Known about the structure:
By secondary structure, the protein is α/β, with parallel strands linked by helices. The chain is 32% helix and 33% strand. Helix 1 packs antiparallel against helix 2.
Amino acid sequence: xxxxxxxxxxxxxxxxxxxxxxxxxxxxxxxxxxxxxxxxxxxxxxxxxxxxxxxxxxxxxxxxxxxxxxxxxxxxxxxxxxxxxxxxxxxxxxxxxxxxxxxxxxxxxxxxxxxxxxxxxxxxxxxxxxxxxxxxxxxxxxxxxxxxxxxxxxxxxxxxxxxxxxxxxxxxxxxxxxxxxxxxxxxxx
Length: 189
């Protein structure tokens, strides 16, 4: 691990400048390293549409807010300007995140999927321990929406189902305790 130390001015305090040192870690953090993003073709289209919307429409809206806030006068004491600049920073961070996801995306082709084993892109029909029938679509973490039964392949249920075959029973831990599911049918999404 390499650490670089450079002097920085911290800011005025009692009309004197405080001087300090800033430690900079030059090793890339594992947390900031791009992870492989698994997407279905539908998920890829949704991410591209969101990126397009953010890059065009939302950027123009935020730029207009900043311009309007500048017209209110002194920007050093202008809450509207600060709010608009914060919104711009969050927008640019989201755009960068979407671009990073798209750069590291692996798109799953439905033609390559079979119905013998559960994979990302599979629709799995299961029966729980109480006999209730459920249908889950296994997707990558970027497009997971549990409310509409699109489960991530890294979620507890997704991990338990991926790689399994029809007729198998899976047991997995959840925050509410152990659950058991029996795979009834596997389709392609």
